[in-house]
Specification:
This protein has 247 residues and is mainly alpha-helical. It has one domain. It has 11 helices and no strands. The radius of gyration is 20 Å and the shape is elongated.
Length: 247
């Protein structure tokens, strides 16, 4: 492992762990700021438009966290490419596409949402429902990209899990973790999407959809960071590459 690879593993590992922690804090604070029973209702959007702080909280830390996870996928490609290049390439490219969709979608909506919040504060009470309707339309437009985000994320989890299972560096534990989390998303994502479409809010199902990616980012990020401390020729990173080349 040269210095460039070691640095990439360090940046990727730290990025993954920071992304997971930021998502926990952001979604936790959002849950406190938005009572579950008001999600996707008129009251939900009224609260959001009244509070610029909540708008900023949702639209800056969350996409920033997803963007921070991009180096993690690059580091995974570096550490797994000689174990199974096909699965590794598919998984890492899908992961980068998924987090890019999430980041770009949320970042792009920030100026419009802040403008709506300012407009809402200056609008007469009789016209506030019109502004709320625009906010609902923007939210629906943003939510339209969620299926693509989760589709690519599921592909990333399953493909990277398959590559990890063939690597003596990660061993089968991390491989099965990625695969199981991907299956959880496959099972619960359609139901969570239906609940959102019906404007229903069931925190347990939301948790089952958002917790797997967060858990994966933290655990895999920690593992990747530990790999950056492995010396060339010691047990771990190099032997995995050597054994893969010989097979």
């Amino acid at each position: 492992m040269d210095k460039g690879e070691r640095r990439l593993l360090q940046v990727g590992g730290v990025g993954g762990m920071l992304a997971g922690i930021m998502l926990i804090l952001a979604y936790g604070l959002l849950t406190l700021g938005y009572p579950p029973q008001t999600c996707c209702s008129e009251e939900f959007f009224r609260q959001a438009l009244r509070s610029t702080a909540l708008l900023v909280l949702f639209n800056i830390p969350i996409p920033s966290a997803w963007a921070l996870s991009i180096p993690l996928f690059l580091a995974l490609y570096t550490s797994l490419r000689k174990t199974s290049v096909r699965y590794t390439l598919l998984g890492c490219v899908s992961g980068v596409i998924a987090v890019s969709i999430a980041s770009i979608n949320l970042f792009a909506s920030i100026p419009l949402k802040l403008a709506l919040a300012e407009l809402y504060s200056k609008t007469a009470d009789a016209d506030k429902k019109t502004v709320i309707g625009v906010a609902e339309a923007i939210s629906s437009s943003s939510a339209a990209s969620l299926p693509l985000f989760f589709l690519f994320l599921i592909i990333a989890f399953l493909a990277i899990g398959a590559a990890m299972g063939r690597s003596s560096t990660f061993r089968k534990g991390y491989g099965w973790l990625s695969i199981v989390l991907g299956i959880i998303l496959v099972v619960f994502l359609p139901l969570a999407g239906l609940l959102m479409f019906l404007h229903l809010w069931v925190p347990q199902f939301f948790a089952l959809v958002i917790i797997p990616p967060i858990l994966w980012l933290i655990l895999v990020g920690f593992k990747i960071y530990r790999l950056s401390n492995v010396q060339v020729g010691s047990a771990g990173f190099e032997p995995a590459i050597t054994s893969a080349q010989g097979s």
